Amino acid sequence: MLDHLKENNRVWAESMVSGDSAFFQRHEGQQDPDYLWIGCSDSRVSANEIVGLAPGELFVHRNVANLAPPQDANYRSVLQYAVDALQVKHILVVGHYGCGGVAASTQDGLSGPVDHWLQLIRDVHEDHQTELDAIEDEHQRLNRLCELNVISQVRNVASDIFVREAWKRGQDLHIHGWVYSLSNGLVTDLDVTVSKAEDIARLG
Ligand code: CO
pTM for the full model? Predict the structure, then answer.
């Protein structure tokens, strides 16, 4: 089964060593990425490809609607490892316009774990109710909620003890908020970069 994927894999592995015969040997023993990507699981938002990074260059965590919940052990384990062990220099929280998870958070009728998971976005919605209510076009309103969600997750990451401790010991670490457009493949920097604890207040 899945022969086409196995064939793709064989072709890909060959292509990687065709221009760089030691590629896999070099990466086998260790990874040394400068970036942590926290993005949506959406199949259209593939982390490495969007920013043109090769295997070994991007540490990746993806979940529904690119959330960074302080109580989520999965996300926090990734964050701890990225900050403490890999000592990445940049954490990119990357949302995307047209996010199904963000849209679902505004609808009724969800149940089970995804309903619980999306509560974090409902909290963002509530915090910005007035601004969002003023946007008449539903599409634009949801896209703004995607941006506000990213900013909120940047705040979560920046407020985390692992990040705060890293800054305290003088580690160079920047947290960025980006949104990816499915319609043209380009990212927009929301200009909410946090490089020290004092910057968190700027996020509003
Ligand atoms: Co999404």
Answer: 0.96
Q: Annotated catalytic sites, by residue? A: 40, 42, 44, 96, 99
For the chain, the average pLDDT equals: 97
In angstroms, what is the span from residue 96 Cα to ligand 1's centroid? 6
Give the CA distances from residue 132 to residues 137, 140, 194, in Å, rounded to whole numbers and listed in that order: 10, 9, 24
Per-residue confidence band for 29, with pLDDT thresholds at 50, 70 and 90: confident
CA of 63 relative to ligand 1 center, distance in Å: 8
Residue 20 lies in a domain: no
**47 alpha carbon – ligand 1 mean position (Å):** 12
pLDDT tops 80 at residue 102: yes
Domain containing 130 equals 31-203
The CA distance from 155 to 175, in Å, is 9
